[in-house]
Amino acid sequence: KTAHRGSFEWSAPSNIALVKYWGKKENQVPANPSISFTLNECKTITKLTYEHKEDADRVSFDLLFEGQPKESFRPKIEKFFDRVAQYLPFLKEYHFTIDTRNTFPHSSGIASSASGMAALVMNLMSLERLLSPDMADDYFYKKASFLARLGSGSACRSINGSVVVWGEHAEIEGSSDLFGLPFTAEVHEIFRNYQDTILLVDKGEKQVSSTVGHDLMHGHPFAERRFAQAHENLSTTRKALTDGDVDTFIKIVESEALTLHAMMMTSLPYFILMKPNTLEIINRIWKFRSETGIPVCFTLDAGANVHVLYPENVAVKVLDFIKSELLGYCQNNQYICDEIGTGAVNL
Ligand code: PMV
């Protein structure tokens, strides 16, 4: 079947890892398994227009960001198309226009690679499904996650499900290094409406790209122990998520965030990605938690911003605390209120 011209539009969310992916092998295979919460508000919206063409020798595309030409994305997208060409043989028969926007502010320090790759892949899968209408839903989502992984590892956790495991783990049936596995059905009620308030401490460009970051784990003195620890932490997190054990969840999530940064501080070259305000915020969260008993915790990405995680039933109190005590440590008092979402959406 051929499709001559048309368009699709998908949104795909960002995600925040609880057990972190840091270090990879060939072909975007993670050095250890990870698990994340899918976000709801921070997302990329991508419209893909396709037009069948006569000369089917290579993929061709135009790139727009918020409706304006954006050539700086080209090398990354080209590399992605090269990697996925063998799985999507129809690609070279089309000319594409890829028009993208994010719901979060420019250079907010929130990475758009996961949401961006996920949104693009969903559109490509829609085209594949148009060409092969018998495609089963399960195949559609699995392949989408598989392809998103080839664009940006963590993007495979932004396709489908509220809680997603990526990477083979002995105790999690069906887990794979090649795609994300939705883990939602087993998650306790308390975690189903978790909130993530993202405090924008430093909105600058990332000091360390994730490609460089993952590379730092090659020959890292603590690499093997770290990879083993991630397996242990995933076992514990999995149990905490199923049992509704918020205390254990907090311990592991905060330890994972600090371990990610510890890996960067102990690699060669070494980096400190936290800012003084990151540490101020962490200390204030700890003080608030010990004084009130309210189960609020933090996690970090490979940057200075802080994700504040808490159940919805304490949201009013936590937001009061954030507004009165933490916003002063953010650039221009900026923050984003997000929460657990469900994955990519066909618009
Ligand atoms: O998907 P990448 O290659 O951008 O790596 C993401 C790495 C972290 O965000 C730091 C951790 C994670 O598991 O998402």
Describe the structure.
The chain has 347 residues and is an alpha+beta fold. Helix content is 36%, strand content 23%. Strands 1, 2, 3, 4, 5, 6, 7 and 12 form an eight-stranded mixed sheet that branches. A four-stranded antiparallel sheet has the order 9-10-8-11. The protein starts with a strand and ends with a strand. (3R)-3-hydroxy-3-methyl-5-(phosphonooxy)pentanoic acid (PMV) binds next to helix 2. Pfam families: MDD_C, MVD-like_N. InterPro entries: GHMP_kinase_C_sf, Mev_decarb, MVD-like_N, Mvd1_C, Ribosomal_Su5_D2-typ_SF, Ribsml_uS5_D2-typ_fold_subgr.
Q: Given the helix and strand composition, which structural class is it?
A: alpha+beta
Please report the distance between the alpha carbons of the first and last residues: 24 Å
Element string (H = helix, E = strand): EEEEHEHHEEHEHHHHEEHEE
| Low-confidence regions | none
Name the descriptors.
347 residues; alpha+beta; Ribosomal Protein S5, domain 2; Alpha-Beta Plaits; 8-stranded mixed beta sheet; 23% strand; globular; binds (3R)-3-hydroxy-3-methyl-5-(phosphonooxy)pentanoic acid
SSE layout and pairing:
Elements: E1 5-19, E2 34-52, E3 60-65, E4 68-69, H1 74-84, E5 94-102, H2 113-131, H3 137-151, E6 163-166, E7 180-182, H4 189-192, E8 195-199, H5 210-215, H6 223-243, H7 246-265, H8 276-292, E9 297-300, E10 306-310, H9 315-326, E11 335-339, E12 345-346
Helix pairs in contact: 2-3, 6-7
The structure holds (3R)-3-hydroxy-3-methyl-5-(phosphonooxy)pentanoic acid.
